[in-house]
## 1
Amino acid sequence: MLFISSKDNPRIKQLVKLQKSARFRRQSGLFIAEGLRVCSDAMRSGAVIRTLYVTEQAAEKFSSQYEELCAYAEETVMLTDHIFATVSDTQTPQGFLCTIKTLDKTIQFDTIKDSGKFLALDNVQDPNNLGTILRSAEAFGVSGVILSADCCDIYNPKVVRGSMGAVYRVPFVICGTIAAFLGEHPELHSYAAVVSSDAERISDIVFDAPCVAVIGNEGNGLGRETIDACGHRITIPMKGNAESLNASAAATIIIWEMLR
């Protein structure tokens, strides 16, 4: 087993780049999962774990989980506590971190039945929002998630951790623009989520499958091109002085209404 105690080691430099750079994640075909639960979820979901990085203290404290992960991963590398802290993205590291092969969900997505109910995300930027949305999508049984190319990187470590493993299991596809995707799939009944008094109230909608509900950017909502590409405009009625909802809160409400 390899043991690393220097921050100048090429593997450590690679981990730092994987944490910080979406471009490097795309180029290398790898992403990071940190934390015992998130790493274990990757294993249980059948993701390819290239390398398990662990501290000696963590391996001893969680010996049974460590042995299981060690047997599953292609290789295991031991890090000192100090070096692990330099590559960690959390304030209180557990001492478990994996590099995982990026997930090819295209075939899985293409095989979804025509009766599916989907969620589309247009330029959603906050990794915490995206992680929460993926978690809700799995919890309520969304058939798949469509992301525009300008969304936050789905392999961002905060997305992976915030999704609580959903990123491994929810079918997803990344397209150029949501408007173009809808143009290529006219069979989908499409619903643009907007803040507008003249839009249809979501509680009055019957979501006929196959369908897709589209959520927009946190600050600006959906662009005109995306709205025009949708067959319907829907809104979540609000009381008080609230003008809009957080993207993940809005998405969760819409998912519930679409699938209930």
## 2
Amino acid sequence: MRSRLNSIFVLTIAITALLTPASLPRTNAETNWTRFIPFNRVEADSRKDYTLRQEHGPWLILAATFAAKDGAEEQARELVLELRKRYKLEAYIDVREFDFTEAIQGKTIDRYTGGPARMKYANFSHHKSFAVLVGNFESFDDPELPATLKKIKYARPDCLDLSKREWSAQRFIGLRELQRRINRDPAKHRKGSMGNAFVTRNPHLPEEYFATTGLDEFVISLNQNVKYSLLNNPKAYTVKVASFGGKDTMNVKEIETIERTGRVSNKLEIAADQAHRLTLALRAKGVEAYEFHDRLESIVTVGSFDSVGEPRADGKIEINPTVHRIMQMYSANRQPLPGQTSLGLQPRTLHGIAFGVQAIPVIVPRRSIAADYARRSAR
């Protein structure tokens, strides 16, 4: 009996040690049992800065945005803390500045100068916006991402509850609340004030981080025996001067059939033939032309460049003069429309094959070195 009481006494002390806050300094040994806690330990300290940075994961969920009003930043930070404390989500705040005061180049023609029309934004303003994002997802296919997104969509944070505060700086919150009330879909009614949350990329990571790791084997096979293949272009950029559509659908089963049988549709064959003939015609004229074929289209490009242009002091790009000349040379001509005073665009042609309306610089596609190495190693 005494031994049994001793055992109970020892067990009671052990349990008490786990449940009672320790008065001794914390040590690394404390982490040995914290991993058994059945919920995530997410820091939520109002004195700390939770500004979004590039190390907070390449993929994020945009939960809410707040307009540039007095108190908007404070409301965004309230949401960050509530998501961390109440929902155990690693939330961050990101500040973006938008300038809509500068004129831009439109796609129409200026009737007085004959050049591209200069236009301005309807919302002529310069302001900041505060976004709240939930992060630390390593990939778009992260298994925890769908469940977290659903959790955010149906969450109802107190700091976003319009019945508990006089006003909210959350963008379009009033409009969304009205739409939710008049919508007859029960699922819309169950969603909370972050019901329009969506997955996005970390804006603090460079574009190169999200670049594809290379072309897949099927696309490589389409371009393998092409003499002037764009895959053999030695530089990083080129100018696309023509595009020939091969498929007008992205049906997964059709794509799988093409990959399995190796047979392409008539549309793809016609597109590839047009791109090939135009490339040969340009080469015959001494032009550095390339062709490229994928599941949806075939394209023709001209030139090879290390860069499209150089950055200027005002943050804009001074386009490479040669690139600009090629764009002008192969873009459509501006001609008067029949019976009208306005100008229209007439695509240029070579040997009866039409170029595109607008020539544009593009990145040269590359094979995946890692994938090539893996294929060679598997042989």
## 3
Amino acid sequence: MLAILKKELNSFLNSFVAYIVIGVFLVIVGLFTWFFDSNVLDYGYADLNNFFQLSPFIFIFLIPAITMRSLSEEYKSGTIELLFTKPLSEWQIVIGKFLASFLLILITLLPTLLYYYSVYQLGSPQGNIDSAAVIGSYLGLLLLGATFSSVGLWSSSMTDNQIVAFVIGAVLCYILYAGIQQLANVFSGTTQFFISFLSLSYHYEALGRGLIDSRNIIYLVSVIFLMLFVTKQNLIVKKK
């Protein structure tokens, strides 16, 4: 697994993909957080809501762009057959590739800690920011990124065409994050709550309120495991 992780991470860092993803993400969230309408400086109080509300929608497109080549390229080039001949289980292949994309997401988010430091310093009095909410939001964003990575990896395991893998991954990420929530709004009462509970946005926003509930973490981790499991099943079918 570590060999797969190292190979995938080196592949990302030795290509323009990683740097384009990191650059695009930081430029977009930086502009909307600090310069465009309703930015931090216009609010008049220390808050990073704009950043945490926008990031998931950028991830919907950027993460499938990272993962689309993970297995699709292996299928197309035929190197997947070489992987099958090595002493690696399907789980090791899947988890190695998943962790590589997750680490790239983590690297992408690290520079944004400067936003928190800046807002912390700008607070009046200094430090007047809901740190618990920021920690919860970062945890939610990492788990959401991991979920999107698992979805993108699954879509990459479905086809040898990277563009098709990207489209499938982006559409499914949108449905899981925002589509289910929009469907829930059509209903009311218990039905609305049940459908809303199935959406990723419900659990992400709950973590962002600063109350880290194990139910939200368990749900997101369960979705990750499910997507990795079906990816593994696709590899088993491909191996036969």
